């Protein structure tokens, strides 16, 4: 997604790609918070989430980060920024997935 939204990342242009993503009937943002944090990624993510929020369009978010974490551990707020987490907290139902990580299973 971020590749398409970068300048010259799409033949349609970054703004058109953002509008397209904001309009799709159901958007799945997988692994939210895994992109390298920067002002640009925070702003693009906020704009997309805010547009979908304002239009009441459903979005599914997945993340390995907890909503909040004690101490020095990263959480969504520290990685994505307070503006984004504020939007997410207003209309998101958190479903915690627990269990063993199959990717780290001993061979």
Structure description:
With 107 residues, the protein is mostly helical. 42% of the residues lie in helices and 6% in strands. It has 5 helices and 2 strands. The chain has helices at residues 2-5, 14-23, 39-54, 76-80, 82-91, and strands spanning 27-29, 59-61. It has a two-stranded parallel sheet. α3 runs parallel beside α5. The chain is globular and about 45 Å long.
Described by strand count, sense and barrel closure, the largest sheet is: 2 strands, parallel
Rounded Rg: 15 Å
Q: What's the end-to-end separation, in Å?
A: 33 Å
Major sheet strand order = 1-2
Q: Tell me, what's the shape?
A: globular
> Could you spell the SSE succession in H and E letters?
HHEHEHH
Number of helices: 5
Low-confidence stretches: none
Q: Could you estimate the helical fraction of the residues in percent?
A: 40-55%
Strand-residue fraction? 5-15%
- Tell me how many strands there are: 2
- Average pLDDT score: 86
Can you give keywords for this protein?
5 helices, two-stranded parallel sheet, mainly alpha, globular, 107 residues
